[in-house]
Amino acid sequence: MREPKVAAIILSLLFTVGCSGMTGMVPTGPSASLSMSQSVFSLPPSADSGPTPTPGPAPQVVTGTVAPLAAGGPRCYLGLYSCEVYNFSLASSGGVDVTLAWDGGDRDMMVQLYRADVGLIHEDVAPRGGASRITFRRPDLAAMNYQLRVVSLQKDAAIPFTLTYAPFENLTR
Question: Fewer C-beta neighbours within 10 Å, C or N terminus of the chain?
Fold first, then answer.
């Protein structure tokens, strides 16, 4: 019976000391025990802060036009929109830098990154009121085949565009 009372007294003392309203005090420097533990357990800074991207092949620049929906051609978004599809591969893990620019309104186009017809990885549209341009970098991609899809959100208009993509590979540590 004595143990629950002792435990309750210890908990109430810890609560009182820990929450005693000393919020106005500001530390002026690290405590001695913290400094000592940092000097014992700190490691020298590493020159290697993670995988470093190395340029892959030269950037690919594609100039084209997404045709109106009625004109036929590739379809995206369950066949609701016209698109153009471009395939690329990564031989080892890395990523891709993508820029899409077009002649038209800021919300006329979008770009999608797919894992070889398996699934959507990234989708982007231009900001409202901004330029007719989308730029993104997608790192941490596995070595496999990918697709970039340039999708027109205007069903009745042909929209000329320029797509630039540059795959890169991560160097290993």
Answer: N
